[in-house]
Structures
1.
Amino acid sequence: MSTYSASKTVAIAQSAEEGAALSGRSLSLPVSFPSGGIGVFASLAWLAFGVSCLWWPDIGDWPRTSAIAAAAFVLSGIIFVATVAGSRLGRFDAGLQRRAPWLLALALFLTLWEVATAKFAWLPLPFFPPPQSIIEVYTDDLPKLLDSVLASVKLQLGGYAIGAAVGFLTGVSIGWSRGVGYWVHPVLRFIGPLPATAWLPIAFFTFPSSWSASTFLIALATGFPVTVLTWSGVASVSNAYYDVARTLGAKPSFLVLKVAIPAALPHVFVGLFMGLGSSFAVLVVAEMIGVKAGLGWYLQWAQGWAAYANMYAALIVMSLLCSGAITLLFRARDHLLVWQKGVVKW
Amino acid sequence: MVALARAEPTALDSTGASLTVENVSHAFDIDGAVLPVLDDVSFEARPGEFVALLGPSGCGKSTLLRLVAGLEPPRSGVLREDGNAIIGPFPSRVVVFQDPTLFPWRTVWHNVALGLEAQGILKAQRHRVDAAIELVGLSAFRNAYPHQLSGGMAQRVSLARALVNDPKILVLDEPLGKLDSLTRIAMQTEILSLWQRTGFTALLVTHDVEEAVFLANRVIVFSDRPARIKADIAVDRPYPRHRGDPYLADLRRNILGLLGLDATW
């Protein structure tokens, strides 16, 4: 079966190449070929994806098939033109060159997915919906999806901000003051390692609303790693820094704000990254169980209706949001810890 | 002990303070055991004098400097700056440590500005930071981060960070100990000219006998731990000094003898 599909794909690619050769633009092709070679293949792969959508009939009822085929053709054309135009497009071309291998891989993956689901059903339906049905979710169920995104972002932002702030302040306090450490450390030891989700049943009946309960849980999941890493960061600051600052006339407030905290900041960011990861997990579980909104709830709802395409669609959005949040945090770190460039490997 | 040479003017325009160390003893508790490090040490440095402290490794010289800086109180005895007992750190007594210990998250300029910022007078006195950086010849590196500097440059920044506070007593804890020999020679001359220009009282701990006799008005030699003063030697030689001066070479031999190293000569 696999040999069959491979030869088919080659055949499609060949026919596509002939098409490209006939279009006349190919005259300039040999000139730009060495630099834009992969770009041309990426363009052909997208063309192949479009063709694969139209070549065989769908085995189900999916209204967006011709639309995604058209989109694939347009994308193929853009990549082709940009590749041929080459350096005349400046930065856009450089970006395209860098991404061309991925564009190629993505198109091949989509083609395979299309053929394996909508055309020959090698993967069982409805558990593996074709690309066009996921696109259909984005066009037809957009308002509900957007509401869910908004609810998730609101909940996550609130809980994360509270958890990070409280964790940071607690970490600095126990790192700095023996007295605070004496009281807080055992509590942290006792409560910290508990997965935040274990609090779920209690949180949902002790808090006035499921929203506040979820905020608390997300804050808890964020707060623990931030506290521990801030604390260890403050505690590991070399005494030499304090000696220098003290001989120069620094008061205790200066030692905390201008010595301990900046020196601990790299640790704090490790805590913030860890907290972000665990807070995502809590967010989704909280939404699935308690809150009647958000992407977690949307996933649950879609599963209940056996709307598998909606599940995949929501999953893709969720992953984009999470990686977007991580990227934002990286940007913040790059900005604040610019002095670390050259000291440590990034 | 050799008497102090009175004739030599120490610096042109003396703004230094006198430092008195009276019967100071100090000890550390290590795992319950008491380890004495200073044993009844007394000496006095006149305003603007350059005093070098020499002694075997680990004898307690650096501990004495921490006491002068006010980072720790002595077990017994008193240290005085211009007659006032030293009870804590104060920017009139600044330490330059063996490691530059620049703050890696601050640029050269902001490292030098540290003292003024800590005292809350940076806004009005920004020009002093520029002047101090100029003084050590690093104006081109004012926006560099510490990791971009060489060892000698980093130590010069740490000198500027001390000098920006106009210290009355500059405490130098083996500041050139980790530099290569060429940079070390250049920095010795630089420290000397900074001392002559600004007139602070300098207290230098070093292992390098040649460095001590080249720089200081006076060399105090300590015994092994617990440190006791073994000799107080005036270096009766005008500045600028010459490294090949036979007087200094003689002095160096004598001091090495006091340290128990005469066999190597």
2.
Amino acid sequence: MREKELAAFLQQYKGRPLKLMEVCGTHTSALYRTGLRQLLSETITLVSGPGCPVCVTPSSYIDKLVEYAFTPGCQVMTFGDMLAVPGSKMSLAEARDQGGAADFFYSPEEMLEKAKAQPETTFILAAVGFETTAPVWATVIKMAADNNIKNLKFLTALKTMPQALSFLCSKGRIDGFLCPGHVAVITGSEPFEELAEAYGETMVIGGFSQPQLLRAMVRLVLESSKGHAGLWNEYPSVVKREGNAAAQKMVDEIFEAGDAVWRGVGLLPGSGLYLKEKYKEFDAGSRGLNEDRIPPGCLCSRIVLGDALPTQCPHFGKRCTPEHPVGACMVSSEGTCCITYREGGTT
Amino acid sequence: MKIALRHGAGGEETSQLIHDIFASHFQNEILNKMEDAAVLPKIDGAPVFTSDSFVVEPLFFPGGDIGKLSVCGTVNDLACMGAKPLYLTASFILETGLETETLEKIVASMAATAKEAGVKIVAGDTKVVEGNGGVYINTAGIGMRPPACNISAANLKAGDTVILTGTLGDHHATILTQRLQMETSLQSDCAPLNHIVQTVLDAGIDVHAIRDITRGGLATVATELAEASGCRINLEEEKLPVSEAVKGLSGILGLDPLTMGNEGKMLVAVPCNEAEKALAVLQSTKYGKDAVVAGEVTEGAGVFLLTALGSYRKVLPLRGEGLPRIC
């Protein structure tokens, strides 16, 4: 019955009003899926952060992919979610409908074989993601280099979380953060510890299953309601203080840090990962894609920072739906607007 | 021997192929006449008619193959309307390069499945296109439905009990692991379900609606039924049967068993006072032994899941492409 008791605590919480943020898109989704979000007390406001990689990719990155899709001899390949993200002129899905070459893969590794089988095609891979995905991309790039597969090129928009969290902490509007468990598996808990200390924030690293989420949320409410600063690792089975050294080494071998633009947020120094000089022949022109056009009225930029709820956007559910997204947050299955639109109803 | 364009040209090679492979496996008194069209005996009841095409990749997978699937798909669509499936047509589009041995294996599998389901394949067609050894199959089927039967997607009533005939996601997970070349113990649940429907109907149960859970999974099928009937369906998370293998795979790949397809499971809605009996009858059948009561129909709209924590969450139909070429 312990789980029911924890659930009852979150349901009946009557302490000081809390504004909490789950940073990771997978948490956003899992909080709905487990029914945890639906039972939170009204005195707890849970907002979503910039933790959906697709949602924070600027429009100039999409534009560059679209340009490649229409370049003879090139074939753009992405994770499925990227296809529908609006660029300043069109999405990759629209480019495909107009004869552009864009398709999706299930895993980036499969592209190694595909590139070998079709040497006459240059495959442009949209390498999007956070610390969790970066090691996968690093491995694929390393394998492409080791096997001399020259017709694989990577347009990277890889981003790192601590810089974004630091930006959010500096604004001081959030009472506590549910930190991304998957990212922490790679980075370790240390970067989050440092942030919690530097900004006096309450931070909890949580897992994704129902019992893990429940434990993390209860910890977050308990500590933030008392104003306790610090980091609590409630995902200790897989998150270690030092993280995954092998994955970190792989990433360091291929990538180096650089400035990156987050859609709606702006440029965050050192928050991007770019191919090192040694691997530059695999880079499809990833640096300097800084232009970021947000459609008029779209609240994505405030939504990814937790300053607005999806339902406060004038386009939400009207002009902007998962079938016809206006903003990036409506596209991905981990995007806040998409999740809220699809899973919003509870009664 | 490999299939070539001449095998679909309508000449001697086509006749040979039909004689050697299709006629020898599918034979029955109607097909054996080899007329341009099959003449069927008078049907006693309402004729029910449906058609389905099959493009699954790979052609063979643990638990089945495109041939078995092509018979089960149409048989199950007829059965879900409360009809007894009687006759099928089978049309093939073959790509050049296909081994005739492969084709024969597929055709033999169709014949065996048709025999199990008790249907006759009475007409067919073969075309050959240039390609790379692929096979596409269309089957159409006719069944007979008793005049008193009114099973329909629009016939759910508030108060009905929703029964699931077994575990979710097996076929989808099997196809996916085959594509990813993963070694697992997964097996497709592909099966003809007409006998279990017949058993329930023979038991005199007033079945309101049946749907086989194919592409889009339970979430999509339940949403369609709720919409068609103007009702709400509440499912209970803790009661939904999912095998450990599917649970593990969907956990790793971030899939939801609720939107994963089956090829041998159904959702059956019956009045709540007949639920216990219907469940017992289903559990006594070969393909329904894992049947469970999964939820209930109420007034309202949409499909909701009662989570283990006691809150309701909205169940959403599959969106986007899902896994293409699953059947």
